Amino acid sequence: QVQLVESGGGLVQAGGSLRLSCVASGIIFRINAMGWYRQVPGKERELVAEITSGGSTNYADSVKGRFTISRDNAKTTVYLRMNSLKPEDTAVYYCSCRQSGIDYWGQGTQVTVSS
Fold first, then answer.
1. Cβ–Cβ contacts within 10 Å for residue 29, how many?
2. What residues in the chain have per-residue pLDDT under 70?
3. CA 58 to CA 71: how far, in whole Å?
4. Sign (positive/negative) of CA torsion 33, 39, 43, 49?
5. Pairing outcome for strands 34-39 and 91-99
6. For residues 89 and 32, what is the distance between their CA atoms, to the nearest angstrom?
7. Mind listing the pLDDT tens digit for each residue in 62-74?
């Protein structure tokens, strides 16, 4: 079992920045991809950004150039730096990781961007 704990969400004005963190713990032997998803009420959860164990990254078109995903050397912590935030970035952000073909999820952290 892998546990994921997110932190760093909050309220910010449009144009501002936030950094989300997610720490993985538990039975960890080789975490593959780690990523961030977000969800607003009434909509499906969507991928925001992901990073593989090799460091390759993938971003949703809506956040390219504004958000940056990174991972620590131990590969158990993933960050999401969010710049130039927009009201449409408001959502609950979830951390996810994959190990041995199983996807794990954090409890989510609220990000609210005011106009």
1. 7
2. none
3. 13
4. negative
5. antiparallel
6. 26
7. 999 999 999 987 7
